[in-house]
From TrEMBL:
It comes from Breznakia blatticola. SMART domains: DEXDc (SM00487). This is Helicase-like protein. Residues 25-192 form the Helicase ATP-binding domain. Gene3D superfamilies: P-loop containing nucleotide triphosphate hydrolases. The chain crosses the membrane at residues 673-690, 702-722.
Amino acid sequence: MNQFENILEFRGTWRLYQKRVLNNFDQHATDKKIHIVAAPGSGKTTVGIEMIKRLGQNCLILTPSITIREQWLARVEDVFLCNKNDAKDYLSNTLSSYKPITAITYQAMHSIYAKETSEENIKDIEIVNLLNEHNVKVICLDEAHHMRNEWVKALEQIISKLEDVQLISLTATPPYDANFNEWKRYIDLCGPIDEEIFTPELVKEESLCPHQDYVYFNWPTKEERAAIEKHNKQVLLAKEELMNSPALFELVKTHPALTNPQDCLDSLLENPAYLYALILYMEEKKIVYPSMLSQALSVKKRKLPTVSIKYLEILMQGILFHDLSSFNANDNKVETLRAILKKYGCIYRNEVRMLTNENINKSLINSKGKLESIKKIALAEYHNLGEQLRMLILCDFIKKESLELIGSGTMNQSIGTVPVFEALRTQNTQMKLSILSGSIIVLPKTTAVSICKALIDMGYEAHMIQLNVDEYVRINSNADNGVLVKCVTDAFEQGEIQILIGTKALLGEGWDSPCINSLILASFVGSYVSSNQMRGRAIRKDSMHPDKVSNIWHLVCIEPKSSIHDIFYDPYTSYDLQMLKRRFATFLGVHYTKPLIESGFTRLSYIQEYGKDLNKNTITKINNQMLDASTKREELRDRWNEALVCISEQNPVEDVLELEVEMLKKNYVFANHWLFIVCTIISSFVMQFVRGVSLKLEQNVFGVIGLFVIFVFLIFVLDIGLSKLLAYITPQHTVKKVGQVILATLEDLNIVSHESKYVRIKDVKGTGVMLVYLEGGNAKDKHLFSTCMEEYFSSIDNQRYIIVRKGFKNALNKYFAVPEIFAKRKQDAQIFTSHIKRVLGLCELVYTRNAEGRKMLLKARGKCFGFRNEKMVDSKRKVLGKYE
């Protein structure tokens, strides 16, 4: 019986994306874990309450803050509760006075569980017993990504002890950039993601506004370049000394792999890059080594390059740390090499660092040149929007010590709320600026006067402190942060402030101001989760300005090519840009020039067109393109509208794999081209034979009948044979067959839904890329399919099961990974193998967790080493339209 029947009823209208999620509710509830990802502004709280209502049992809601806790209870009362007088009987915010819907914070739950505080006044009662006593059958985790390790541990233990509990997990920002173990723990607790409400859906339904991400580059300052060059010179000196070091030469000559390669090979293949670095060094130094070592990696001696900085770093990391047991740790030669690296600053926390340096990375992330970027962006946006500009600049730090330097002309050039304020103040005195942080509020004097009066009227103390410039003052008040933030936010929305400079800690989450139409992310500390939350501040729909279009600015400092980079220098390995690329992997947005919506970095076409040629001149051109595009808000709106026409209500966004056709031809698919040639030759002989027979048979009636039978038989055989052959000699057909095998295995194991599903392949014209995705099914099905396909085409690493194809020498035609979901049980792996034989022919399933299988895994890993950097597949999300 549902205890909320006639008690809770949604008094609103469901939006299409909310209906889609709720329509699949019963299906998702079967495994006792419902996991919903919903973009900011999607109404996930309302959807969560509806799920609680449908489950109809006592529920505990866990939230990250008291504010959000109260928002949940207020939403139940205002939007669902049929009789508001029932609130006291059905709603509570404390476990000591439990009601059918009780909301508490994660902190309170952990405190009770750990018995560290009596905040809930039930210190002596175990929380598990209490929840069982109140027959709690539903636990709802709001903003599930917020859970710290100790909270997760407590929750895991609580849930494990509760009887038959249903878990609902809601979040706007899953921790996609967490490490493997953290992600696994998150998924183990919350369950696989069942449904996702995507940003494009919200834009189409006008819950969010059209928006665009722009990237503004800066070149390191003179001082930063000098620091980089100093480091690079040190690295080159270290390389020269190491390559000429008798200690390194003698040490490598004593490596046991030179005398007992068979005994050492397995351990060396645990890290193929280290083995390759050893080979490069021995080859350059003319040290004779067993050919077995190079054969294990399928490398040819005559094609080996000289030792680069990259492989010298790998070699030294191995000798000094990972492979130290192969040498005498007390050998003076080891200490000699360690001393050389320390002398040149190339060791950091037991890691050899030559290509990268922690101090250099920090200096680029916090580059002083980004202050100049902020000024140029702000001026461009002000010039474009004028009085309508509502810009938010989010920083990591306040730099409170710099307050006294305002107006002095000697402000520190660093990223923080105070330096950014001063940089903009001195650039243009017409812009109305404000600083809003937990400890500092700076306002235009006229605005401060009205805010102080309002605070005094509310019963608070408030007074102004004059800065060293006439136009701006600080406010001091005993009002709490919530009141002060609201006062400043109101002034911002009314146009008394045009540029609000704040800290991520105060404004990055839980704060909302729909008027924001330009956001500069000058915050560089944190994860995808925090950056996505900050980004969400700018894309809210503004009811006062329904035509709002928002710009989001990301700042990147490019590390210049230097003397330590070899010919394979890639500016995308620059730490700042690499971090931004990882975050963009999960942001769905519209292409710069085409009506396409997708995740990933490729939609930023102004950057992509320059490839790896990112230097001082090209980034200036890119910045100018970005500034120009940012002024064309109406064009951006039109591009969103055109791209959204094709969005499907049932499957708005597809999990898509992009595969490079040429790489597949080169490395994988055309293993069958010799078979094709042989079949062609055989077929020509058959046709000649048929022709000869037909000349004899057509002499009489029975011969003509016989000829007709042979003709029909050959058509049947050739039709089947050619169709099968064609299925395996083109990249598109081969990939489709692999996809069908993976789908068939998922269906055999009852891992996916029973809805109709099809593997689709599309060529993207003029790009050399094919798209692979699952049409039909639910979000969970699509994600599982995409993950399995990506794992199958990945390099061999440490998979539990691998497939070894017989009769092939090319590593990428011989060794294949069994997707993780099929590798948990032997019988599942065997089912996958029985299906994949239709594609691969003769092949063997190898279990890698015993001695024999481990040897095969290491052999496969070594053979695949040469291809490890050739990523054939890239996963992303797309709204598929006419351009694909």
